[in-house]
Amino acid sequence: MPFLPWNEIDTVLLDMDGTLLDLHYDNQFWLYHLPKRLAEIRGISEAQSQAEMKKRYDSVFGQIQWYCLDYWAESLSLDLDSEFMPLKRELSHLLSIREDTVPFLNALHTSGRQVVLVTNAHPNSLALKLEHTQLDEHIDNLISTHEFGVTKESQLLWQRLQERVQFTNERTLFVDDSLPILNAAKTFGIKHLLAVDNPDRTLPDRNITEFPAVRDYRLMVDDIVNNPVTRS
């Protein structure tokens, strides 16, 4: 387990997909389910549909469009509410909270820390996932970067987020499964950074070395609770 100086951490900023929720749902939807259903709708081969979607994904990776359901619905000529969201719901049985998430969040709250969800997920995706996981019952503040018009890959997002949440870089921990996003947070000056080594339970651990990495939050619970936040 990575060492984190919890006595220096007051605020915890958390990604959602792959960090608090298992990433299996998203991987299955975007890489397999959506291309397959589009192939059926358009009467083309699944391989052709996957190749087309890969080109589309690559063209907007890391940009707000990559995460924007309005963009994908319009780009794929699908109505967001009546066609695209029903496709997302077809796999909703795969939505799940990581087993170690709730004990981790409970420990953060017990120790008096501010807990903020910061996700690039579109508000409709966020609402769907909250509906099926009740994750919002364990979070103080839920923020979709779509309200800022930029993603966590952008320095502008971190500036606007800091104005909203009023966190101090030196006393903030940010947890994410994306290395580019962790690097963006590092560039902004957030002192404490933690990667998730196993975002998708069906895939092997990634053995991350660029940042301290976690595989089971429950191993940190005692340290968190034993170092509560003391406020002046």
From TrEMBL:
<dbReference type="InterPro" id="IPR050155">
    <property type="entry name" value="HAD-like_hydrolase_sf"/>
</dbReference>
<dbReference type="GO" id="GO:0006281">
    <property type="term" value="P:DNA repair"/>
</dbReference>
<keyword id="KW-0378">Hydrolase</keyword>
<dbReference type="InterPro" id="IPR006439">
    <property type="entry name" value="HAD-SF_hydro_IA"/>
</dbReference>
<dbReference type="GO" id="GO:0005829">
    <property type="term" value="C:cytosol"/>
</dbReference>
<dbReference type="InterPro" id="IPR023214">
    <property type="entry name" value="HAD_sf"/>
</dbReference>
<dbReference type="GO" id="GO:0008253">
    <property type="term" value="F:5'-nucleotidase activity"/>
</dbReference>
<dbReference type="Pfam" id="PF00702">
    <property type="entry name" value="Hydrolase"/>
</dbReference>
<dbReference type="GO" id="GO:0008967">
    <property type="term" value="F:phosphoglycolate phosphatase activity"/>
</dbReference>
<dbReference type="InterPro" id="IPR036412">
    <property type="entry name" value="HAD-like_sf"/>
</dbReference>
<protein>
    <submittedName>
        <fullName>GMP/IMP nucleotidase</fullName>
        <ecNumber>3.1.3.5</ecNumber>
    </submittedName>
</protein>
